[in-house]
Design brief:
The protein has about 400 residues and is of the alpha+beta class. Helices cover about 45% and strands about 20% of the residues.
Length: about 400
């Protein structure tokens, strides 16, 4: 019961979170400046730069301080302008553009229950809620949320499924509203296990691990840090919910997506931060950054940089080292495959736009550009949280089989 590799390419993603702020040197004006930053801050070596120069994709594991965490980054060269990248990303953000995305939607600027009308709750999740108590629950919930299920749902009634579904949606709506009003201080505390996981602390730790990104673009850094009170021009925010097929259980996740368009001609022109503010299974936290970097001058070029740090609740224990090895290998392979496909589709989109100059082929070329760009960026949008799930799901499944055989 192995999950197909194509599904990994989707699940090496979503919910997310990206607290990003790039180093001052990210305002580089040459390829050598870019190499210097990658060497100093990300750990790239000369062989990586040689591979990049030959058109190859470079993906690296990053050091971590927590045994639950997996961190990976990657870089690929492109031949497209920033606007092509941004338009493709925007068009794919809220689309159900892959079979692994079961349901997807976004909250409006003033969230309402109607924003969640397309979200369904798995029957087995509702059944698990019957026995859910603080410290022992199969869904990631806070203590107040667990208590509300006990008090407000009549589990003996014939319609308890609809009662539980409605209550969960109400609580998720209240949570999103609170987050939009207060920012990080409103982030959930998971009380599904004996040890409380405070998402605010998790996010702080992930940001600290990525501290080399903080010194530059201070305005954007302060904007993210001070959300929702801080202000900054050329910023878009979206709160996106999704239900995604993965392994043994579909995952419902809520992400805060921030897109910043930098007006400078050199360095990171587009920065996308994806911050996971909720997940009902598997993930304690996730933070990711996607950056479109432009290098003008005598040897112009553009690059797509990605970094993800995710913490999963199944990477510890007796077999933690084995699971980590599986997860890291698949994370590297999956990210490399996605970035390479991104390069192919984006570069092809530019060719399509060039061909569209011919009137007879205009409509056909536009359709081809949209098909390639949107499909590829549905992957990039999803590339934020699911670094660990494939290996974890396969491992748990094998463990159950082995116990059953014994």
């Amino acid at each position: 019961m192995l999950i197909p590799t194509s599904r990994l390419l989707v699940f090496i993603t979503f919910c997310a979170i990206v607290w990003l702020c790039t180093n001052v040197a990210w305002a580089q004006n040459s390829v050598s400046d870019l190499h210097s930053i990658l060497r100093e801050k990300v750990g790239f070596v000369e062989n990586d730069f040689a591979a990049l120069q030959q058109g190859q994709t470079v993906v690296k594991l990053l050091p971590v301080q927590d045994k639950r965490e997996v961190a990976v980054s990657g870089l690929v060269s492109l031949q497209v302008p920033a606007e092509v990248f941004l338009q493709s990303y925007r068009e794919s953000m809220f689309r159900k553009s892959n079979p692994a995305i079961l349901e997807i939607g976004r909250f409006s600027n003033e969230p309402t229950l109607d924003d969640l009308k397309g979200l369904t709750i798995e029957n087995r999740d509702i059944e698990d809620l019957k026995t859910c108590v603080v410290g022992d629950c199969r869904l990631k919930l806070s203590a107040p949320m667990i208590e509300r299920f006990h008090k407000e749902v009549d589990w003996e009634a014939s319609d308890y499924h609809s009662q539980a579904t409605q209550l969960l949606k109400v609580m998720l709506l209240d949570y999103v509203r609170d987050y939009l009003a207060r920012g990080d201080v409103a982030l959930i505390e998971y009380n599904d296990k004996g040890k409380t996981v405070r998402l605010g602390e998790e996010q702080h730790a992930l940001r600290a691990s990525s501290s080399y990104m903080y010194d530059g673009l201070p305005k954007f850094s302060q904007y993210l840090k001070g959300f929702p009170e801080s202000k900054l021009a050329n910023v878009e925010n979206a709160i996106v919910w999704s239900k995604m097929k993965f392994g043994l259980k579909p995952v419902i996740a809520i992400n805060h997506i921030t897109i910043y368009k930098n007006e400078k001609e050199a360095g990171p022109q587009i920065l996308i931060a994806s911050k996971q503010i909720y997940a009902n299974h598997y993930f304690d936290s996730s933070l990711a950054l996607t950056a479109f970097v432009n290098i003008p001058g005598a040897s112009p070029g553009s690059y797509l940089f990605y970094e993800n740090r995710s913490r999963a609740d199944g990477l510890g224990g007796m077999f933690g080292k084995i699971k980590r090895g599986l997860v890291e290998d698949r994370a590297v392979d999956g990210l490399k495959a996605i970035l390479e496909q991104s390069k192919v589709n984006l570069n092809a989109s530019v060719l399509g736009r060039t061909e569209s100059a011919a009137p007879a082929d205009g409509h056909r070329s536009w359709r081809r550009w949209k098909a390639g760009g949107v499909r590829m960026f549905s992957w990039l949008f999803l590339i934020t949280a699911f670094v660990a799930l494939l290996a974890l799901s396969n491992y748990h499944w094998r463990s159950r089989v082995e116990r059953g055989a014994n």
